[in-house]
User: Fold this.
Amino acid sequence: MALINENYLKLKAGYLFPEIGRRTRAFAQAHPEAKIIRLGIGDVVKALPKPVVRAMKAAAEELAHDETFRGYPPEQGYDFLLQAVVDNEYRPRGVEILPEEVFISDSSKCDSANIQEVFGLDNVIALTDPVYPVYCDSNVIAGRTGLPDEQGRYAGMVYLPCTAENGFVPDLPREHVDIIYLCSPNNPTGAVMTRQALEQWVEFARRKRAIILFDAAYESYITDPEIPHSIYEIPGAREVAIELRSYSKTAGFTGTRCAFTVVPKELVAYTRSGDAASVHPIWYRRQTTKFNGVAYVVQRGAEASYSPQGKKAVGKLIKYYLANAKYMRQQLGACGYTVYGGVNAPYLWLRTPEGKTSWEFFDLLLNQANVVGTPGAGFGAAGEGYLRLSAFNHREAIEEAMARIARL
Ligand code: MLT
Assistant:
């Protein structure tokens, strides 16, 4: 008799974004005349930057000839991209990362789901609430939790509420925790962690011999020069933190798929007997067993995003989406909504009006304005009473969506 992984049965409902997609499709079928504007999932809409496309075409041409053909990519990524990451993402910020500490992958989503595999099942996991659902679900599936309560909080998990009162930045836990997921700029709230907040967390992790999984997929959207872009800007972070980055929301790679994760050589976790075990070779072992790398064409495209023209084009894309976010903040504010985020992040975190629940407001927006958002409750109990709007759309669509919301 084949047994199922019963941990899957603990998961409350479908994954958030497919569920939103299902509801949106049902609405569209029932109202074929409706012109739906999607500000739900954070999916980019602008074309890939030209220098990236040129590099991809040239790479595809190389593959068309035996002399320049490439088969399996090197397991951690091609040297040209590893070096480009170090030279462009870290060195200019005074952060020393070695190319061999970088692991190129197909997404931060996958890496943030998979990284927990290298840690023991008895670790206590700390999650912010609200949180990107992947961090939570991957730990539930692995068996680190019990069942969820009526609010959807899983037994055994430590939740760090992020509310308007604490500026949506988690306070240090009073309980024991071993692994902490932090995301800044934050998905979904759009909040950023200051240097001081990050210093506190790094100090905490060092003191407790805990590990921080730092998701910085949206770091390019930071506009405030005081906010760190990498956790490694904090002294001592190399010993306690793994960092995840992505090309999805920078160079427009949501469909093309490329990201990277940094695992410093100093980072250790412990055996039951208390011996230190380096995490880097274990993640390497995991990746080489379960992952076969990112296509050459895609890695050449990612590399081109660091060329002078590539950087210019990427900067333009980010400016475009940030201008959308700014406009949305202004318009929603003028309509009387309480809005957070959207300054250092492409997400706005909106208080639902008149005490409506997240899903009630989601339905209202969909039915009456034909605008799709993401209900805050889908990100955790503390997200109830909020709705996330993404700034990833064409400017005309954003303006139309805001006009419709204003007319509600
Ligand atoms: C989001 O909308 O939260 C993101 O696009 C999801 C993701 O990056 O996987």
Summary: The chain has two domains: 13-46+309-406, 53-307.
